[in-house]
Amino acid sequence: LVYGDGANMNAVMGIADMKKCGVDVLHLNLHKTFSTPHGGGGPGAGPVCVVEELAKYLPSPRVEFDGSMYRLESHRPESVGRLHCFHGNYGVLVRALCYILTMGAENLKKATQYAVLNASYIKVKLKGHLHLAYDRPCMHEVVFSDKKQLEFKVSTLDIAKRLMDSGYHPPTIYFPLVVPGAIMIEPTESESLEELDTFIEVVKEVVREVETDPELLHNSPQRFKVKRLDETQAARNPCLCG
User: Number of H helices and number of E strands within the chain?
Assistant: First the structure.
């Protein structure tokens, strides 16, 4: 059996047929591709899709439609049984379903195309300013690194903190792990050309600051009451008392 990680379906949705790719089981991260909230620990939901041959093993009860109404069907002799959290984050699932039905197949495909186009645009515009980890066509994400900025003793973390001063949530940093000092930018399909250009100019300005005033980045963010937390200490000794 082939298990497919559908965490990044917004790069292939409506274009690649996962069954034809040989995938038997596929989970979908709704927060990346189908508009649901993400962050702060949730809520998350990941429905699992299977080929017809495996459907009989899915957890029960199953939602069935008998032609006039929906009902829960529990008589599944070969099912793996009932899961502890059967209903999951129900609201998240309903939101994703509404998004899919509203968009339709044609617009879901367009969302993929725009996501890839936006990432490719950022790649081309920032290629000479940040080190491009892989100089080849990208999909919905583009990975840079701090290789050039390290010459000025400025790291990926410094760049991320400085972007916060311009109102941007930092992109994913230090991932993927195979790229030292990785800066992974994923603009998604929803950003306009104007928004992309504004972000690109902000990144270019931060890169210029690296060369002219690296200490500014070491002390960023500048506009927040709380600047840099001891993230290592927080991870090793979390305070969960509220």
Answer: 6, 9
Q: Is 10 part of a structural domain of the chain? A: yes
Phi, psi of 3 (to 5 degrees): -100, 125
CA 49 to CA 28: how far, in whole Å?
8
User: What's the pLDDT tens digit per position in 10-37?
Assistant: 999 999 999 999 999 999 988 878 988 7
Per-residue pLDDT of 57-79, as tens digits, reads 999 888 899 899 999 888 899 99
Around 127, how many Cα atoms within 13 Å sit in the side-chain half-sphere? 11
Domain range for 72 is: 3-106
CATH label of the domain that carries residue 207: 3.90.1150.10
Do both 133 and 96 map to the same domain?
A: no
How much is the pTM? 0.88
Q: Which helix (H) or strand (E) holds 50?
A: strand 48-50
Nearest of 6, 2, 5 to residue 112 by alpha carbon = 6
4 three-state secondary structure: strand
| Pair 35, 98 in one domain | yes
- Residues whose CB is less than 8 angstroms from the CB of residue 118 and which lie 6 or more positions away in sequence, other chains included: 140, 187, 188, 189, 191, 196
